[in-house]
Amino acid sequence: MNFIEEFRNSQSGRTLLEYINKRSTKPARFMEFCGGHTVAIFRYGIRQLLPPHIEMLSGPGCPVCVTSTADLDKVIALSRLTEVIICSFGDLLRVPSSRQSLLEVRAEGADVRIVYSTMDALEIARQNPAKKVIFVGIGFETTAPTIAASVIQARNQGLDNYYVMSLHKITPPVMRAILDAGETRLSGIICPGHVSSITGSNAWEFIPKDYHLACAVSGFESLDILYCVKSLVDQVEDKTPRLDVSYSRAVKPEGNLAALKIMDEVFDICPANWRGIGILPESGLCLKPEFAAFDAEKNFEIKLSEPSRETPGCLCGEIIKGTRTPLECKLFSKVCTPENPVGPCMVSSEGTCAAYYHYGGKLG
Amino acid sequence: MCLAVPAKIISLEDSVAEVDLNGTTYKASIMLTPEAKVGDYVLLHTGYAIQVIDEKDALETLEIFKQMEML
C-alpha cells in the first residue's frame, strides 16, 4: 500500500458516482475551501461527473492568493534592503504587488531565492553569516508549524541572521467570515485535508453546529473527494448536517499535538489582512515577543514610499470568497494568463483562476 | 501550497529521516512527528513530516468502498 493508488481505484469511483447520482435530488452548492482540492477536482474531472444540480465552488484556501497587496508591498520593501537575502516558496515570487513582483525586484539585483523548505533557508543563513536572511512565511496551519520549527532550530543553533516575516493565516476565522457575510449560499463545505492534519477535524465542528451546514474533511485523491461529496449529499438529503471525515488516515479529531505545541511556542494569534476580505481579528500568526530577535517586522524598518493599490479589473478578491468565478472576470485568459498573471489566483498553481485556465474551466 | 505527499521512512537519525518518495530519496525533518519510526508512511510537506499516516484507518476507508461496491 502506498496510500495513493488505492485511493484512485476506478471501480470504487464508479460506485461512488452511481450512489451520488441516485441519492442526490436537491440542488446543492458545495464549497471546497482548499485550493489543492480545487485543482484535484478539476484534474479528475469531478465537476463534469456530478449531477448538474450540484455546483462546486472554490474557496479561499490558497495562501498566496489571500495575501494582501499591502503585505506584499512590505515584502518588496524588505527585498530592497542591502545585505538581505529573501527566501520564499516559489509561487510568491511572481505575484504582483502594487508595483512589482519579487521576480522583478530580483531582476534589478535583489537577492531573492526560492527554497523548498525552511531548512534550506536556515542553511543559506549558515552559509552567509554577513547577510541577513529573511524567510517570507506564507501559509496556513499546514505550513506554519514548519516555520515555527525553523525559528526554534535557529534559536537552538545560535543563528543570529535568520528572520521570519510572518504572514501566516489560520483558516477557521475566514471560513466563519465567508459564512457570516452570507454572499454565497452554500449547502456544504469540503474542509481542507492537510490543514486538518495539524488542527484536527474538531476545528470544523462549528460548521454544522453554528451554521447547520453539511461538512466533511477530504483527502486529495479522487476517491477521497468523491467519498466526501457522497457524505455531503447524504447530509443534505437527510437534513442532518454533521462533521464527517473521509481522510481519517491523515486527520485525527485532535490533530497533530506536537506540531500544535511548536506553533503555540513560537506564534501568537493576531489580526491578519486577507485579500478581498480585509483585516480579520484573530486570523493570523505573529512571532511571540520572546522570539522578537527573529521577527523581520521588528528588526527591519519597512518603508513604504506610496500607498498600496490593487490592479483595476482583477476579481481575485471576489473569487477568493466564492462570490464570483474566473469566467466573470474580464481579464481572465485574455489579459491575465499563467504566463502573464495579473492577480495571485492566476499565479499560484492552486489558484482558482489557474485551475480554470489549465483544466478547461475557461470553456465554461 | 498545503500540498503534502505520502513518503516512507527508510532510515532515521535524531530528528532527520530519509524518506522514499516514488523511488527518490529525500531528507525530511520529523520535528513535528516525533513518534514516527522506520517503515512508517508520513505526509511530507516542505521538507517536514507533518503527520504519520494511519494504515488501519486507510484500510477501514478502503473497506467502506468495497462494501459499497457489493451493494
Automatic annotation (TrEMBL), chain B:
Alphabetized GO MF terms: carbon dioxide binding; iron ion binding
SUPFAM superfamilies: HupF/HypC-like
A GO biological-process term: protein maturation
InterPro entries: Hydgase_assmbl_chp_CS, Hydrogenase_HupF/HypC
Superkingdom, taxonomy of origin: Bacteria
Entries under PROSITE patterns matching the protein: HUPF_HYPC
UniProt record similarity statement: Belongs to the HupF/HypC family.
NCBIfam families assigned: hypC_hupF (TIGR00074)
Protein name: [Ni/Fe] hydrogenase metallocenter assembly protein HypC
Organism: Dehalococcoides mccartyi
